[in-house]
Design a protein that fits this description.
Layout (H helix, E strand, L loop, with lengths): L1 H27 L6 H34 L3
């Protein structure tokens, strides 16, 4: 059960980080950059947010698998 809790806490942190990054991607890009570069960097940050969500899902799956296996 402790494995599930540990992986669940890690996944929860990644979900929150991904949500924060998705919401704030445009604000985190420096205003001094040209517009096309700002859009590109915001897309990169959103992609990173999606990656956080994917890794969080994998961590939850691994935690449940370990819990079901008795670890």
């Amino acid at each position: 059960m402790s494995t599930l809790v540990a992986f669940g806490l890690l996944a929860g942190g990644l979900l929150l980080l991904g949500r924060w990054g998705m919401r704030n991607a445009n604000r985190l890009v420096p205003l001094s950059l040209p517009e096309n570069e700002r859009r590109r960097r915001a897309r990169v940050m959103r992609r990173g947010s999606v990656a956080c969500w994917v890794v969080a899902g994998v961590l939850l799956a691994v935690g449940f698998h370990a819990w079901l296996a008795g670890g």
